[in-house]
Every structure is written in structure tokens, then in C-alpha cells.
Specification:
362 residues, alpha/beta, Dihydrofolate Reductase, subunit A, five-stranded mixed sheet, 10 helices, elongated, disordered N terminus
Length: 362
């Protein structure tokens, strides 16, 4: 079960709120590089309250956020405060317990956003308190759970990856013209944003229809157009074996998994077993509709172009909804002008897959 907020309201001191905001930024900066570990951010404040060190989770096998921040802080950590987005671990895995590292460094206080939700890594707060360290749990917990940790927490709670559905559409909701042409609906700034979004994910998923029609490469490129050093897993759902050997998604630019999974849940189970914790769904209307019907879309990123087509495929296929009372609803997380287009990021307030998401939940 997931740990809830602290029993009593968290007490936060001067400078700690700013440090927690910075810790969330640090976690977000490594999103897509840490799976199956959580993307955690940590800031060390010296005894006088000034920043002394910071860090984020390294790729698997590397140091955790707290250890990197302590190394940067050095002797200034003694008597200071560690501000962390997730409760420091108490177990030994590829690295030692972060709780022990904080104790050894002489940290006097630890401020935590999200209590550890797993029994395997839990116990860090208790170990710190037993060593005389002041521990505050649940500080700005909602903000941390809704941010970089959302995907990892979905894995803990639902044993599946977090799914972000990305779609580019015209003002009237078309993803292609009547003749099938779809390049380019949006401008260069929006297309660059897609590459940044891909970089935060462990896998990019399309259906065989998209792979055949658009022949995308599905790689991450930087602002100069060069291939990024780390590439997410490319996934093609191809139940009928239609993907040709010449498809660009089968080149050597990135790893590729061709799946014959019959349902979105089956596909996500495959990917979860591959340590995928955050999926970018870039498939067409049919695949998007299947995920939405199953209640397996956790976030939506829409790039909306100020153009009209009046015909052509819509951004999502049949959802099996015949009345307004059953319509899927979303809340707008943010809305950002992007060149001549607009990016809208949304979270569902309700799923069709038999479970509800509270507004703002992850």
C-alpha cells in the first residue's frame, strides 16, 4: 500500500520550500534515465541554511540523489538539512542505504516530500530518527507525486508503466488530411518539444498502421538535429506481422521491440517487465482509443495547430461513448504557446477502465 501524508501537518522552515522546489527540478531533469529506479532530487542545506550541494538519481548502478548531493556538500553537510523528493532508502541494492549515508555525513534534519511506498526500500525515516535525526515527512507531497515521480509511483501502485499520449492535431481535431498527408501539422517548435518529451520516456509506442503510413524513426534528436546519446525503446504493436524489414524503426539508431500483444494491458505488462516505467504513446487514433477505453492513459500532451481541414482522420477513434454523461473528462495542467501552435497538457479526471483518478492524482 502507498504511504500517505504524515499524521500531523508537515513543518517547513525558511529556505526549505525553495530547496524542495529545486529538488523537484533536479528529479525532472533526469526523467527517463533512471528506470526502474525513481527519479529523485536532493538538496543539502548547510547548518546556516545556505545551499551546499545537490544531486539527482543516476542511471541504475550509479549513486542515488542523496549521495551525489552529500559528495558535493562535503563537510558543509554536517549539522545541515537534506531536502529530498522521496524518503531515503534503508536497503542495500546496487548501492548502499541512503539513510546510512546521511547519518554518516552528520545531517541533522531530513525533509521529505513523498514517504517511501514500498516495503522493500522502506524504513529510512525510522532509521534516521533512531540515529537522532529530525525527519519531516509529507512536505509538498502532492507536488512531488504529480511531477517526476508520477511514473515510478504508477509502477508501484498499479504494476504498469505511466502512459503519456502525445498527439498533434488541427483546430478541428484532425491528425491528417483526407488524402492521408500529415506532415507537418505543427511547426518546428512543437516538433522539437516532441523530441524533448521522448527523452523523458523509457519507451515510445506506435501501432503498425502508423509505422506503415508514416515510417517514423522514433528517435530523440537534439536542437541541432543530432541523435541523443540515450534513446528510448521503440515499440511497434504489430499483431498481424505487417511491419516490413525496411521500416526505419528497425534500423540500428535505437533498440526496438515488436509486440504482438492483444491488449494495451498486455503490452504494458511486457514493457513493465523490461523495466519501462514511462511510455510515450504516439500511435494513431485506433491505438489511442484502445488505451483510453482501457483507462490506461495517465497524461495527454496535445499540440494544436491553428488550421482547419474539415475532413480526415480524427485524433482518436471510437471510444464506445454515446452520451455526454459518459464523456471522458480532463483537467488542463498547463497551456503553452509554442511558435504558431499551442501545447496543452492534461490529466484525466476519470477513466473508463473501472477506476477513478482524483483531480490532480497520478
Amino acid at each position: 500500500m502507498t504511504a500517505g501524508p504524515a499524521e500531523f501537518p508537515a513543518v517547513i522552515r525558511a529556505g526549505e520550500a525553495h530547496a524542495m522546489a529545486r529538488a523537484r527540478e533536479l528529479g525532472a531533469a533526469v526523467l527517463g534515465t533512471t528506470s526502474p529506479n525513481p527519479p529523485v532530487g536532493a538538496v543539502i542545506l548547510a547548518a546556516d541554511g545556505t545551499p551546499a550541494g545537490e544531486g539527482a538519481t543516476a542511471p541504475p548502478g550509479g549513486p542515488h540523489a542523496e549521495v551525489t548531493a552529500l559528495t558535493q556538500a562535503g563537510d558543509r553537510a554536517r549539522g545541515g538539512t537534506a531536502v529530498v523528493t522521496l524518503e531515503p532508502c534503508a536497503h542495500t541494492g546496487r548501492t548502499g542505504p541512503c539513510a546510512d549515508a546521511l547519518i554518516a555525513a552528520g545531517i541533522a534534519r531530513v525533509v521529505v516530500a513523498v514517504p517511501e511506498p514500498t516495503e522493500f526500500a522502506g524504513g529510512g525515516a525510522d532509521r534516521l530518527r533512531a540515529a537522532g535525526v529530525d525527519v519531516e515527512l509529507g512536505v509538498e507531497q502532492h507536488e512531488a507525486e504529480d511531477g517526476a515521480l508520477a511514473g515510478w509511483l504508477t509502477g508501484v501502485r498499479e504494476h504498469r508503466p505511466f502512459v503519456v499520449w502525445k498527439v498533434a492535431a488541427t483546430l478541428d481535431g484532425r491528425v491528417a488530411a483526407a488524402d492521408g498527408t500529415s506532415r507537418w501539422i505543427t511547426g518546428e517548435p512543437a516538433r522539437a518539444a516532441v523530441h524533448r518529451l521522448r527523452a523523458t520516456c523509457d519507451a515510445v509506442v506506435v501501432g503498425s498502421g502508423t509505422a506503415l503510413t508514416d515510417d517514423p524513426q522514433l528517435t530523440v534528436r537534439d536542437a541541432e538535429g543530432w541523435a541523443a546519446g540515450r534513446q528510448p525503446l521503440r515499440v511497434v504493436v504489430d499483431r498481424r506481422g505487417r511491419l516490413p524489414e525496411t521500416a526505419r524503426v528497425l534500423d540500428d539508431a535505437a533498440p526496438t521491440h515488436v509486440s504482438s500483444a492483444g491488449t494495451p494491458a498486455e503490452l504494458l505488462a511486457e514493457l513493465f517487465d523490461r523495466d519501462v516505467r514511462r511510455v510515450l504513446l504516439e500511435g494513431g487514433p485506433t491505438l489511442a482509443a484502445a488505451f483510453l477505453r482501457a483507462g490506461l492513459v495517465d497524461e495527454v500532451v496535445v499540440h494544436l495547430a491553428p488550421t482547419l481541414l474539415g475532413a480526415g482522420p480524427s485524433l482518436v477513434g471510437d471510444l464506445g461513448i454515446s452520451t455526454m454523461a459518459d464523456a471522458l473528462s480532463f483537467r488542463i495542467v498547463d497551456l503553452i504557446p509554442m511558435g504558431g501552435d499551442v501545447q496543452i497538457r492534461l490529466r484525466p479526471t476519470r477513466h473508463t477502465g473501472g477506476h477513478q483518478h482524483a483531480d490532480g492524482g497520478s
